[in-house]
């Protein structure tokens, strides 16, 4: 399996060396539209597909892709991870992709509206925001209000990105006017700025904080419940291998896939 952030393909060995992939035993391949069912019918699926997935899915989908390939030796999966809105633009401009997994329903709807999605996308996870801060929380941030302090360098996602849309919702729910010093095109870019010390705080998903392996601390806030992002996945009409594309989509929603997503901090759809 290969993984490619945006348009760059990265061999699996490199991905694993970077810590983006982790081993997980695939209990059973999923071969039907039921998230909890499995079948031997797709045991012989083979070929190669490209999956466009939201940046927040990078670790979990790398793991799921590896597990899927172990269960289906004849199958090969490549990934392109970026902000959901960027991925939609790439697909609309003709970028070859077989499956799209979005961090929100709005960006998936853009593809459906332009007749690029095949069938009805299926929800497979949910996520909420959390405040990422430097380890030990040196600024003493405990709420959204604290992010408005003049001594706090805040970064958020840009509005078209799902995490940016969620940020706007929590601002509205709380009445807090956030003034970020920069707005990023993906949630991983926000996280990276906090990890590197370029920002004091960033609004990311709880899964990003959990996946940071101690490089940041997370500060939960009540208003996050007002902006729950639902993640849909769907096969694209341009897919050259719709059977394999559907098999992977089913696998993500299977009991095995849900186990990996839950362990990473995602909620149920």
Give short descriptive properties of this protein.
seven-stranded mixed sheet; elongated; alpha/beta; disordered N terminus; five-stranded mixed sheet; 9 helices; 269 residues
Task: Please give the share of residues in helix.
Answer: 25-40%
Strand residue percentage: 15-25%
Secondary-structure-derived class: alpha/beta
Number of helices in the DSSP assignment: 9
Radius of gyration: 18 Å
| Largest sheet entry | 7 strands, mixed
| Strand tally | 12
Oligomer: single chain
How far apart are the first and last residues' alpha carbons, in Å? 27 Å
What does it look like?
It is a single chain. The protein is an alpha/beta fold and 269 residues long. Helix content is 33%, strand content 24%. The chain has 9 helices and 12 strands. It has helices spanning 12-17, 58-71, 84-92, 105-113, 162-174, 187-196, 206-211, 242-253, 255-263, and strands at 2-5, 10-11, 47-54, 75-82, 99-101, 117-127, 129-133, 154-157, 182-184, 201-205, 217-219, 229-236. The strands form 2 sheets. A 7-stranded mixed beta sheet has the order 2-1-4-3-5-12-6, with helices on both faces. A 5-stranded mixed beta sheet has the order 9-8-10-7-11. The chain is elongated.
């Amino acid at each position: 399996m290969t993984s490619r952030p945006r348009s760059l393909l990265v061999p699996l060995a490199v991905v694993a060396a970077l810590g983006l992939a982790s081993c997980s035993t695939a209990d059973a391949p999923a071969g039907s539209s039921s998230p909890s069912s499995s079948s031997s019918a797709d045991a012989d699926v083979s070929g190669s597909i490209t999956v466009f997935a939201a940046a927040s899915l990078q670790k979990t989908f790398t793991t799921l892709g590896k597990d899927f390939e172990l269960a289906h030796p004849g199958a090969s999966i490549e990934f392109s991870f970026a902000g959901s809105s960027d991925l939609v633009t790439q697909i609309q401009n003709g970028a070859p992709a077989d499956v799209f997994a979005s961090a929100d329903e709005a960006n998936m709807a853009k593809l459906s509206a332009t007749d690029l999605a095949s069938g009805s996308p299926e929800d497979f996870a949910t996520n909420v925001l959390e405040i990422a801060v430097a380890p030990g929380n040196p600024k003493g941030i405990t709420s959204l209000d604290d992010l408005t302090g003049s001594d706090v360098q805040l970064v958020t996602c840009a509005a078209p990105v799902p995490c940016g849309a969620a940020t706007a919702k929590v601002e509205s729910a709380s009445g807090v006017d956030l003034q970020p010093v920069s707005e990023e095109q993906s949630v991983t870019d926000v996280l990276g700025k906090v990890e590197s010390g370029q920002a004091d705080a960033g609004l990311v998903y709880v899964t990003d904080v959990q996946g940071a392996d101690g490089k940041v601390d997370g500060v939960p806030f009540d208003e996050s419940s007002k902006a729950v992002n639902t993640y849909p996945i769907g096969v694209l009409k341009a897919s050259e291998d719709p059977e394999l594309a559907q098999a992977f989509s089913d696998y993500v929603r299977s009991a095995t896939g849900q186990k990996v997503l839950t362990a990473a901090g995602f909620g149920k759809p």
